[in-house]
Amino acid sequence: MAAAKVNERNGCIDGPTNPMFVPTDEYTLFNNLLLGTNNFNLSFRFDLYFRKNPFGGEYTVFAGLEECIKLIANFRIAEDEIAFIQASLPPSCEDGFYNYLRGMDCSNVEIHSISEGYVVFPNVPLMRVEGPIAVVQLLETPLLNLINYASLVATNAARHRFVAGKSKLLLEFGLRRAQGPDGGIGASKYSYMGGFDATSNVAAGKLFGIPLRGTHSHAFVNSFMSPDEITDKLLYSYDGSHACKDFVSLARTWLRKLKRSLVLGGIFGETNQSELAAFTSYALAFPSNFLALVDTYDVSQNFDLFTSVVLFHLLIEDLEVVFQLQWPKMVNAARALWAGPEAAGDLPSLATGDCNGFLQKTSIFLAFKGKAREELPPLKLIRERCIKQLDQMRTDHLRRLNPTPYKVSVSAKLYDFIHFLWLNEAPIGELQ
User: Fold this and answer.
1) Is this prediction's pTM over 0.70?
2) Left (φ > 0), alpha (ψ -120 to 50) or beta: where does 152 sit?
C-alpha cells in the first residue's frame, strides 16, 4: 500500500497504475517541433492550478500526485511509439526531433507540489514543474489527466462524508458504473482517500490495500422462490454462547409483527418471498457481516425486511485544472490558522519568503534520478491527512447549500510583483 514504492528488483519507483501510450496531445509535439532542436533543453517552469471548485462548492481535495510521480519517474518513449509519431507527423520534420525523443526522460525535471490529500482552492498553484521545455510540455496532458479525475472523485467523496457524518459507514460500489476499468480503479482509490471506508472493487483492494466490503447480487435473490427452500436454519450468536434453531421462522414472525404494528401505521405491504428467502439465507451465512441489497424488485416494499443501507454512487462533474507558464518567479502557498485548529485562509507568496511564522507550509519537494526528494506516504496516511484537513475547515465552507467562500489572498510582495507585471505587460487600448 506504500505510495510510489521503490521496486526491489531494479531500484526504481514502480510505474503508474495504468501506463499510457504516448501520454500527450498532438499539438504538444508540434509545439516542440516549432521550438527547434537547439532549444529543446531550455529550462522552463510551469504551474498547475485550477480556476473553479467543482459541484458548486468552495473547496477541492488535491489527489493524483502519486500517479504523477510514478509517471515521471518512468517516463520514456519506446521505439514503436516514436515510429507511430513519425508516421503521423509531416515528413518535413527533422530527424533530430525523433532522436531527441529516443533519449528523452525526466532526469532533469523537478516537482514542487502541495501534499496529496490537502484541501485546495482556485488559483493557488498545486504543482510546479521545472525542467527542459521539450520535456515539461509533453508532461502537460498526462499530469492534467491524472490530477483532474482524481481530485474530482476525492472531492465528491469528501462531500458525501460531510453530509453523512463521521459515524456512518460509507462504501464505494461504483465499479460497474465507472468509465471503464481505469475509471473504476481510480474511483475506488480516490473515494477511499476522500473519506469512504471500503470498496467492493477487489482489484483496488489488492493494489492499494483498501478494505473490501460487499453485498449479494440480484441473481442471488432471483435464485430463491420461498424461505421453504432453506434447509440449514440454525443460527449461532456472535460469541457462540447460544443458538436459534429456526432462524427462518423467527424472521417470518418478526415480519408479521412489523406488518401489524400500529406505530408503523401499516406502511408495509406485500413482501416478495424470494427476497425474504435470500436475505434470511445471507444472514445465516454471514451473521456478523450482513449487508443486503434492497432494490431487486421494489425498495419501498422491501424496507420491512431489514434496516436499509444507503449506497453512494459517485456523480462526475467537470473540474478544469490548467497547466501554464504563469510566473517568472516561484510562488509558494501557505495556510493561515486561527488560534484554534480552524483554517483562516491561504496566502500564496514569493518563494523568497515574505510570510509570517504562523503560516503552515503546504508544499513538498520531489525530484528524480538520484536527487533528494520527500517520500510519499501510503494511501491510508493520505486519507488520514485529508480527513484532518477537512476537520480544520469551518463547516460553513464545507456545507452543500450556499457555502461561504474561503479566503485566498496574496502576500504584499507577491501583490506588488503581480501589479508590476500588469503595468509592464498589459496592452494599452487605443482611444477611438
Assistant:
1) yes
2) alpha
